[in-house]
Specification:
Layout: H1 4-10, E1 15-21, E2 33-39, H2 43-49, E3 59-62, E4 68-70, E5 75-81, E6 89-93, E7 96-100, H3 105-114, E8 117-118, H4 130-136, E9 139-140, E10 143-144, E11 149-156, E12 161-165, E13 171-172, E14 175-176, E15 182-190, E16 192-193, H5 196-213, H6 233-238, E17 246-247, E18 250-252, E19 260-262, H7 268-286, E20 295-297
Parallel strand pairs: 2-5, 3-5, 4-20
Antiparallel strand pairs: 1-2, 6-7, 7-15, 8-16, 9-10, 11-12, 11-15, 13-14, 17-18, 18-19
Helix pairs in contact: 3-5
């Protein structure tokens, strides 16, 4: 018998589906089945569906799926996918850019530059959405997301919108403390007046730098491990002789050792085993236990319910 909340969800705006392959929503192109997947058209849609979901039903959010490894057994409960949705970007005043959580970081960087604002150029190198960037304080090229944030809008399981200032959050390197069952749906970023051509040129320069040093044309999740204090994960992996090391269809990139590539036929299990192997080898060689930057979620297989 179909639960009432599922019947109600199917009548909402947006797209609701059952038993959806999640690999198409991740940059690694791996991952099992999502029990229920919802793609909202607006924040209002989220306000309608979230109160319907039973308290015992888990909720997982996916943006561009660029910092997430979904195991082959998939995910139970509701998966909310914001990529290509919730992507409104607006100029609020002369120096403030508003962006919804599904907006790609690259889109925000270009929008800001075209409106003669500077400070967001680095976002062009972040391979994800603003929701993900907010949740993990994503950064590159020496800058981090929360350095530019003035306000955020959250939504909770009851569908309530909550606006907070950046000072309300404890933010660190690739970490943001967030209450349980609260998710980012939008942000306002305080930027500085600049010059359009200078900012666009800086974006091109940063993207060229990224292309020259990272495997941008291959299926990866971005950086796999956080940089340990005073060092670089990529250096530790490379000096452990792991460039090109392969498990199944997953390989440590020859271009940048802190990237793991799906060579075409990798499973999530291949990637997770390679992550653990790299951790162990770096620990053996350097005495450093690398901490994954990527979030590993889901079931190992359909019979198991172990979750990282």
């Amino acid at each position: 018998m179909i639960e009432q909340w599922i019947k109600d969800a199917k009548n909402l705006p947006g797209d609701f589906a059952e038993n959806v392959p999640l690999s198409k929503f991740t940059s690694w192109r791996v991952g099992g089945i999502g029990e229920y997947v919802y793609r909202p058209q607006s924040v209002t849609d989220l306000q309608q569906i979230l109160p319907l979901v039973p308290a015992e039903t888990p909720i997982t959010w996916l943006g561009l799926g660029s910092n997430t490894l979904i195991r082959d057994g998939g995910l139970s409960g509701l998966v909310i996918v914001t990529q290509s949705r919730l992507n409104t970007i607006q100029l609020i005043d002369d120096c403030t850019v508003y962006a919804e959580a599904g907006s790609s970081c690259a889109q925000v960087a270009r929008f800001s530059a075209r409106h003669h604002l500077t400070g967001a150029e680095f976002l062009a190198g972040v391979p994800g959405t603003m929701g993900g960037a907010l949740a993990m304080n994503a950064g590159c090229f020496g800058a981090e997301t929360w350095q530019q944030v003035s306000h955020v809008t959250l939504i909770n399981r009851q569908g309530q919108l909550i606006k907070k200032m950046s000072s309300d959050f404890k933010v660190g390197y690739r970490t943001v403390l967030l209450p349980n069952d609260h998710w980012f749906v939008a942000t306002s970023m305080q930027l500085q007046q600049g010059h359009k051509e200078h900012s666009l040129a800086k974006i091109r320069e940063l993207l060229d730098q990224r292309s020259n040093t990272q495997p941008t044309g291959e299926h990866s999740c971005g950086s796999v491990f956080r940089n340990p204090s005073g060092d670089y994960a990529g250096r530790l992996i490379e000096t452990s002789g792991l460039k090109g090391y392969q498990v199944g269809g997953a390989s440590v990139s020859n271009k940048h050792a802190n990237f793991i590539i799906n060579k075409g036929q990798a499973t999530a299990k291949d990637i997770e085993q390679l992550v653990m192997y790299v951790q162990q080898q770096v620990l053996n060689n350097h005495g450093v236990l690398l901490q994954p930057e990527v979030k590993i979620i889901g079931y190992q297989n359909h019979e198991q319910t172990c979750e990282s």
